């Protein structure tokens, strides 16, 4: 089995977890944001594997080009279409009451396209397509990796890992800077990428050590996931960089503790289990291929569902959401095949 197929399985599952919390159904109360944590770990894993396998340590510019081509084209297209959609709707319904307000200021648009965090009166604001908040961190990770590759080449691993660990632990050592940009560059989310790098480098060692008891480990992981998902998730603390602290069962808890650890355990256990039993599944693999399109294209479905929510009963919203998720996955297949894949050089 291709060692990365299990990673594709997890990508697809993570994308759907994120979708579930954004659609107006009872599923929205679950902590599906944990899907983003899985994405961040996977990103670190993939970056190490791709550098090691393709020799990008001697081709930093090639590395950066390929990573940006994976992220930018679809994000730029979705952002442009989102702007067009809002301009068109506003021109036809100038007085309409919208359920989702959209900041269309020139600075928000510019920073959204440039993957720069937005600060308004000292407070963080999401990019125009709010899902792009996680892509800001992805791009930061790619740029930091690129700079390390330029300087250290083949010996990139320790310097990159050290830098990510130092920056990502700053909040826990000295606290937030209460500045959107300083907090962005020292975000605990950088720890996810660091841990992903470690998984990538030592995955064979981990497989050897954990393989004998991976079945009960996966059972424990699923139980932990169940406990985490059924608790009351009340959102985030929007002080400094948001989403790093989770309001969970009425308490503020570092996200990496409550969502990061279960995500890490899930990644490790499923990767090793799939390798051990040579698990393959064409549907999960295709879902993983579509995961990025699913993640971004959901913005249009979210917009539609919240705008139309008043027209449906509670049961109607659930059925409509399930139908929209099905259509989203289907449309994402075309997006991957006819758009995304063209940039996968």
Structural class: mainly alpha
Q: What distance separates the N and C termini?
A: 23 Å
Shape: globular
Task: Name the helix and strand elements from N-terminus to C-terminus, one letter apiece.
Answer: HHHHEEHHHHHHEEEHHHH
Low-confidence stretches: none
Strand content: 5-15%
Number of domains: 1
Total strands = 5
Helical content, roughly? 55-70%
Computed CA radius of gyration, to the nearest angstrom: 20 Å
User: Largest beta sheet: what is the strand line-up?
Assistant: 3-4-5
Number of helical stretches of at least 4 residues: 14
- The pLDDT mean sits at 88
Q: Specify the biggest β-sheet.
A: 3 strands, antiparallel
List keywords for this structure.
345 residues, 5 strands, globular, two-stranded antiparallel sheet, 3-stranded antiparallel β-sheet, mainly alpha
Walk me through this protein's architecture.
This protein is mainly α. It has one domain (5-343). It contains 14 helices and 5 strands. It has helices at residues 5-22, 34-54, 60-92, 106-114, 133-152, 157-168, 170-174, 180-185, 189-210, 214-230, 255-276, 282-289, 291-308, 314-338; strands spanning 118-120, 123-125, 233-236, 245-248, 251-254. The strands form 2 sheets. A 3-stranded antiparallel sheet has the order 3-4-5. A hairpin with a 2-residue loop joins strand 4 (245-248) and strand 5 (251-254). Helix 13 (291-308) packs antiparallel against helix 14. It is globular, with a radius of gyration of 20 Å. The model has no long low-confidence stretch (mean pLDDT 88).
């Amino acid at each position: 089995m291709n060692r990365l197929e299990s990673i594709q399985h997890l990508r697809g599952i993570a994308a759907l977890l994120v979708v579930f919390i954004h659609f107006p159904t009872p599923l929205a109360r679950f902590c599906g944001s944990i899907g983003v944590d899985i994405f961040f770990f996977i990103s670190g894993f993939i970056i190490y594997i791709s550098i090691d396998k393709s020799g990008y340590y001697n081709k930093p510019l090639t590395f950066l080009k390929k990573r940006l081509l994976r992220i930018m084209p679809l994000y730029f297209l979705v952002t442009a279409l989102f702007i067009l959609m809002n301009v068109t709707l506003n021109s036809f319904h100038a007085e309409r009451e919208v359920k989702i307000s959209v900041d269309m200021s020139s600075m928000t648009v510019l920073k959204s396209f440039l993957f720069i965090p937005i600060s308004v009166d000292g407070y963080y604001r999401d990019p125009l397509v709010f899902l792009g908040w996680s892509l800001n961190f992805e791009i930061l990770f790619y740029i930091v990796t690129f700079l390390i590759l330029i300087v250290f080449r083949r010996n990139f691993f320790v310097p990159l890992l050290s830098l990510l660990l130092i920056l990502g632990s700053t909040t826990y050592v000295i606290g937030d800077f209460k500045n959107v940009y300083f907090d962005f560059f020292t975000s605990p989310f950088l720890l996810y990428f660091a841990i992903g790098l470690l998984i990538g480098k030592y995955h064979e060692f981990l497989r050897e050590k954990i393989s004998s008891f991976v079945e009960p480990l996966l059972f424990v992981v699923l139980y932990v996931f169940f406990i985490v998902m059924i608790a009351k998730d009340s959102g985030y603390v929007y002080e400094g960089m948001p989403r790093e602290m989770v309001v969970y069962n009425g308490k503020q808890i570092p996200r990496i503790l409550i969502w990061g650890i279960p995500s890490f355990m899930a990644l490790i256990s499923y990767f090793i289990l799939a390798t051990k039993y040579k698990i393959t599944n064409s549907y999960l693999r295709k879902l993983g291929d579509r995961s990025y399109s699913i993640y971004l294209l959901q913005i249009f479905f979210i917009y539609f569902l919240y705008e139309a929510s008043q027209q449906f009963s509670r049961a109607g919203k659930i059925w409509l959401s399930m139908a929209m998720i099905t259509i989203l996955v289907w449309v994402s297949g075309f997006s991957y095949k006819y758009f995304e894949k063209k940039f996968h050089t």
